[in-house]
Automatic annotation (TrEMBL):
<protein>
    <submittedName>
        <fullName>4-hydroxybenzoyl-CoA thioesterase</fullName>
    </submittedName>
</protein>
<dbReference type="InterPro" id="IPR029069">
    <property type="entry name" value="HotDog_dom_sf"/>
</dbReference>
<keyword id="KW-0378">Hydrolase</keyword>
<dbReference type="Pfam" id="PF13279">
    <property type="entry name" value="4HBT_2"/>
</dbReference>
<dbReference type="GO" id="GO:0047617">
    <property type="term" value="F:fatty acyl-CoA hydrolase activity"/>
</dbReference>
<dbReference type="InterPro" id="IPR050563">
    <property type="entry name" value="4-hydroxybenzoyl-CoA_TE"/>
</dbReference>
């Protein structure tokens, strides 16, 4: 499986009055991590649009399990990978580490989306391109 790791420093604006990360901020970090995963794998947003005719990769489901809080100034490592790929949907997993300890598990279900060929004003799920499947799954 293709994995991307990125280091993130917790900023003042990420925290609530108790000085811990306000949980929706993690979902923004996860979104950035998924975009970065595609970019590092060689599939930039421009490639998704130009080469594959996609409009985006919207999230249709998300959830997290929180184990260890983070506070202002902490460094965390977000490890992101695609766990499974179906025709057009895929499962993303984010493991967040604080030092060596697993702090958070994040889960997303996303869908590749393009314009509906019958009605370009509408969006429609699009099949996962074979070269993308190969890159993310290692097969």
């Amino acid at each position: 499986m293709f994995v991307n790791r990125r280091e993130v420093q917790i900023q003042w604006g990420d925290c609530d009055p108790a000085n811990i990360v306000y949980y929706p901020r993690y979902f923004a970090m996860f979104d950035d991590s998924t975009s970065t995963l595609f970019e590092v794998a060689g599939f930039s947003k421009q490639d998704l649009v130009r080469k594959y005719g996609l409009v985006g990769i919207p999230m249709v489901d998300t959830r997290s399990k929180f184990y260890i809080p983070s506070t202002y100034g902490d460094w965390i490592t977000i490890e992101t990978r695609i766990e499974s790929i179906k025709r057009s949907s895929f499962e993303v997993k984010h493991n967040v580490y604080k030092g060596e300890a697993l702090a958070i598990e994040g889960f997303e279900t996303r869908v590749l989306v393009g314009r509906d060929p019958v009605n370009p004003d509408k969006l429609k799920s699009a099949p996962f391109p074979a070269e993308m499947v190969a890159k993310f799954t290692g097969s």
